[in-house]
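Handout, section 3.2

Students often ask what a structure token actually looks like in practice. Rather than define it abstractly, here is a full record for 314_t:CDS:1. The first block is the sequence as you would receive it.
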Amino acid sequence: MGEKLPLKELSKTGFKILEINVDAPFITGNLESTFHYLFFKRHESRGSKDSPTKVPPERTLFISNLPTDTTEEHVRYIFEEYGEIEGVIFHGIPDSEEFLIDENNDIDKKDPELSSSENKIYQGKKLRKRRNLRPRIGTADKYKLLTREFYGSRTLLIPASSAYVIFESSEGLNNALNMSQKMRLWKSRHSILPLGLDKWIKEYKDLRCDPKELQKEVDEYMRKFEEAEQKRRQELEAKHNQPDEEGFITVTRTGRRNVNTDGTITVTAAKPEEVKDLKPKNKELVDFYRFQTRETKRNRLVDLRKKFEEDKQKIAKLKANRRFRPY
């Protein structure tokens, strides 16, 4: 059995090169997998009090150039064999305030917790990536996100992100720094949320309920609603014509509701004898127009003249018969 070789180092930086085998079924049709390179070293802290990230340097590993689909499960799968991991802190989550673009400032502030070499790799790649993306983002708002988080799926990191791997003890860190060269797969022990076409299929299914489960929820809701309505009716019946605390009785009127035994309302046609006495509604508008008003006045004057002539003839007839007595 051959001797295990140590990992190669990136010249003049102190970073060790870790080669991982990544599945690539959606990257190209010719290859089943591809290689990706991680760079890691012992974390070197400057000890600034204003640092946003507080990690113990004696048991913290700094990793750079992470794939965009990296999760904590991926990191644990690679490094957990060398010691218990307390936690993983990522730098490169799009919804973090650290990765918002300020349109008025092209120079990002360096993390004081990172050493000069860590800032050189991590900060430099982040700046180059942001400058490349900046013309595509627009200037509508002052701050812009580099990527967006889709509903129902895991968040992708920005390219060339980094992370802190905090071990339970310094022994785990030393074991990780002394790892040897071997084939390492980029996967996780537990199931993680899918990406690509599988992610869209999952989102599609999650947005549509099972008809049987939906029917159960509807039936349960209606059962609770009917119970609440029945309880409310019983409370109203119990308070019906009952004196209150001051001795007053509130008289309530309960109307008769013609309903069937199953709770539904029956609609029947009206009887002929009930309809014949109903007067039709006059749909014509009286004195709505000006000509209607003039015509009404004219007809009223004609009727008055006609009645005056009839009364005049009647009075003349009574005078002829000597029977006219006005008083």
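Discussion prompt for tutorial groups: Confidence is low (pLDDT under 50) at residues 96-109, 121-152. How would you have guessed this from the sequence alone?
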